[in-house]
Amino acid sequence: MTPLAKKLVYWYRKNRISYPWRMTRDPYKIWLSEILLQQTRIPVVLKFYEKILNAFPDLISLSKAKDAEFLSLWSGLGYYRRAQSMLHCAREIVQNGAGVFPSDLHELLALPGIGKYTAGAIRNVCYEYLTPAIDGNIRRVLARLAMSHEKLESVFLEVGKGAESGDFFQSLMELGEQICLPKPRCVSCPVQNICKSRKEHRELEFPVKKSKQKSEKFHWYLLLLERKGAHFYAQNSAREFLKHSWIFPDVLSQKNLSPSELCKNFAQSWGIKVRGLKELRTLSHAVTYRKIHAHVLAAESFHVNGVRGKWLKPKDLKNYPTSSITRKSLQVQDR
């Protein structure tokens, strides 16, 4: 084991945060945690990790899940493609791999929704095959340690040579989460005397910062239609986000629309005729790079016959994937 890896692993074993996925080498649980951790904060992941495992404790039970059942459980996490990829992946492994995650890198990469990072995490933690697995945290750590922006997969393998791959991989992750932050806490770092960028006082130069995608502003008009204690919900496959979520009939625009323009849009896009539109409230919402003003609307009268959708009561929503914007909108109406 290299001196750097030895220090990292020793520090990790003394200081690691005891997340539940760190208490297991079960490939199913490691895979689940890694998929959940994509684009999601750890406190939220902890909640959904336990909830999903309670409902689907293993790969076989997940492979038998109905799409709507799993997507409903996923509701609130967003990025529903992750959930659908998980279902496809589970079914493929059970159908073609006897219900066991492969250890071979190429076989893992051939599975739906599994990229190089997730495949590397599974191989490192579950099968003890040292495999480059580089996300944003680990990229930052390796770039500073090597004082380089390039060949970080080689750096990963060189530094981790001879180490227990699971703990080595997670020590890099832990260092990136706790100490080697965008504004690093170098005085607390267990490898500060070995870190090349620290020695040169150039730690803030690594890694190269990617230019952020410019945020775009949208107006999202959500039409709350109520009848006998139920609201009308529909899926919108034409929308670029939350395509599989059951949300109110909507219109998305980069400009503010007048009531007459909205009535025309709802008639053309949804076949819903409305009169007397009024705005209940505007909510702030964000989806990836989009900054959204969500306008919650109600109508004095409406006609929805023949429109694809469902009248659902609040108790029914647990069976349908929805979004936090749905809950926010309903709270507005209740006030």
Could you please describe the fold and organization of this structure?
With 335 residues, the chain is of the alpha+beta class. It folds into two domains: 3-205, Endonuclease III, domain 1 (Orthogonal Bundle); 216-334, Alpha-Beta Complex (Nucleoside Triphosphate Pyrophosphohydrolase). Helices cover 43% and strands 15% of the residues. It is built from 14 helices and seven strands. It has helices spanning 3-15, 27-36, 42-55, 59-63, 67-74, 80-96, 105-109, 116-127, 136-146, 152-160, 165-178, 196-199, 259-270, 324-334, and strands spanning 216-223, 226-227, 230-233, 250-253, 273-287, 290-303, 310-312. The strands form two sheets. It has a four-stranded mixed β-sheet. A three-stranded antiparallel β-sheet has the order 2-3-7, with no helix packed on it. Helix 5 crosses helix 6. The chain is elongated and about 75 Å long.
Low-confidence stretches: none
> What does the overall shape look like?
elongated
CATH architecture of the largest domain: Orthogonal Bundle
Number of strands: 7
- Tell me, what is the CATH class of the largest domain? Mainly Alpha
H/E series: HHHHHHHHHHHHEEEEHEEEH
Distance between the termini: 62 Å
Instruction: Classify the helix fraction into a percent range.
Output: 40-55%
Q: CATH homologous superfamily of the largest domain?
A: Hypothetical protein, domain 2
Largest sheet: 4 strands, mixed
What is the domain tally?
2
Which structural class matches the secondary elements?
alpha+beta
Task: Give descriptors for this structure.
335 residues; alpha+beta; Endonuclease III, domain 1; Nucleoside Triphosphate Pyrophosphohydrolase; 2 domains; 4-stranded mixed sheet; 14 helices; 7 strands; elongated
